[in-house]
Predict the 3D structure of the following.
Amino acid sequence: MGNEQHIFEGGRKLPLVEEFYTIQGEGYHTGKAAYFIRIGGCDVGCSWCDTKFSWNPNLHPVVPAEQILEHVTAFPAAAVVVTGGEPLMVNLDYLTGLLRQKGIETFLETSGAYPLSGQWDWICLSPKKSAPPVEELFKQAHELKVIIETKEDIDWAVENGSRVKETCKLFLQPEWSQRETILPDIIEYVKQHPQWMISLQSHKYMKIP
C-alpha cells in the first residue's frame, strides 16, 4: 500500500469507484436517505461479494476529497455512507473532517480488517471470516451486521456479538443468493435470541442502488 498511499496523499485523494444519492437499504438505518461514497480496494475476498468491481483500487479514478464534498452538498440529505471495497484501506481522516465541518453525518461500512481512521457518527462492522476485525473495531462499532450464508455462519455471528459493546445493535443478514434457503434459520434464531435483529437488503427489493 506504500505507493498507493503516496498517490492518495494521505487521504486527500481517494480511489472513487462510484458515488450516488439513494436510500440506505440495510441495517439499523434502513430507509434513511444518504449519499453513498464507494472507495476502491479490498483484499478480504468474500466469494459472494456483490461489488467485486471495487476490489482493485487501480481501476478507479483518484479523486480529490474536496470534489467529493462538492457532490455531497448538492443533495438535501446531510448524511454520507462510506463503503467499499474495504474503505479503511485508505486514510479517511481528511474526508470525514471535511464532511463534519459542513455538519454532515458520517456513516462507515467496514469489515474491520484494518485500523480505524476517520471521524464517525455511526460505524457498521460487518466481520468476515477470511480477515477478522482488528480488536479496536469491536469496541468502536455501533452496529454489528453479519452476513449469513449457511446455518454455521450464525455461530460466527454469535462469536463476534460477544466481543462488541453492550449498546451495539446486532443484525443477521441473509446472503442475497441464499436468502430463500437461510431465512427460516435466521428467523427462528432471532425469535429465540431477541437481542439480534434481521437485516434485509431492501434496496434490492426496491430496485435502487
Q: What stands out?
A: Strands lie at 13-23, 33-39, 62-64, 79-83, 105-110, 122-125, 143-148, 169-174, 196-198. The longest strand covers residues 13-23. The chain has one domain: 2-206.
